[in-house]
Design goal:
The protein has one domain: Vaccinia Virus protein VP39 (Rossmann fold, 3-Layer(aba) Sandwich), CATH 3.40.50.150. The chain has 256 residues and is of the alpha/beta class. The protein is 41% helix and 21% strand. Strands 3-2-1-4-5-7-6 form a seven-stranded mixed β-sheet, sandwiched between helices. α5 links the parallel β4 and β5. The model has no long low-confidence stretch (mean pLDDT 97). It contains eleven helices and seven strands. α2 runs parallel beside α3 and α6 runs antiparallel to α11. The termini are far apart. The radius of gyration is 19 Å and the shape is globular. It binds S-adenosylmethionine.
Amino acid sequence: MRWEPQRYLRFERERTQPARDLAARLALTSPRTLIDLGCGPGNSTAVLAERFAGAELVGVDVAQEMLQRARAAHPELRFEQGDARSLEPKAPPDLIFSNACLQWLPDHAALFGRLFGLLSPGGVLAVQLPFHLQSPLHRAMDALAREGPWAPRMGAALEALTVHGPEFYYEALAPAAAGVELWVTSYLHVLEGHRAIFDWIASSGLRPFHAALGQGSDRHDFDRALLAAIERDYPLRSDGRVLFAFPRLFIVAHAP
Ligand SMILES: C[S@@+](CC[C@H](N)C(=O)[O-])C[C@H]1O[C@@H](n2cnc3c(N)ncnc32)[C@H](O)[C@@H]1O
């Protein structure tokens, strides 16, 4: 399931804002080694380069198409191919930062525990996850997937994202941590109408559903029904725009 960096970046400002907010909250003084895990097209890596100028920073991603875009857009930064599940930094990093990536991976107790265990003494794991699985948009996608003629093919798509509540991450990290901070921010993105909400999700969370639907009439029918649900659930404002509410969960864990 390939990414399309250009489509993903249509909403670059909105998608990067949580990375900016997370980086701004970090009280780290002069971290030496930083990893941007799931760096995508390099937008979050650029935020870290600005926030922690002078540190040794590497953006890591599993997708070559994202890395290509990252290297083209930010030739001054370093990017490497790697998998979050088997990350093995040469030296323990002072910061592992991950904006909107780890929801694509399962088994978060083991994953978060492993990443936290890689940190240097006093190091920080800083993660942002979309916390929107109960949003009208995701509920519509899930309901459509379960109800349509395509339902028998939708198992993997329905399981593609993993995001737990804040309590889960507290329990996973607090026993080994010097401190854990958690918060939820709901962004209200002002988008140019219903089609923009569709395009937003088509370049991220809808990808596993599209992969299962293929290119034929099922996909056409699914997309048409999803757009109708978006029109129903996200009323137009007086200027024709929509407010797209997008809650995000932030997790910051400090190593002793
Ligand atoms: C939604 S993008 C986030 C990009 C960027 N960090 C941002 O702030 O917009 C998610 C990224 O996670 C990457 N990703 C997914 N699974 C991964 C894994 N196992 N290891 C590393 N990166 C992964 C994808 O390739 C994709 O580039």
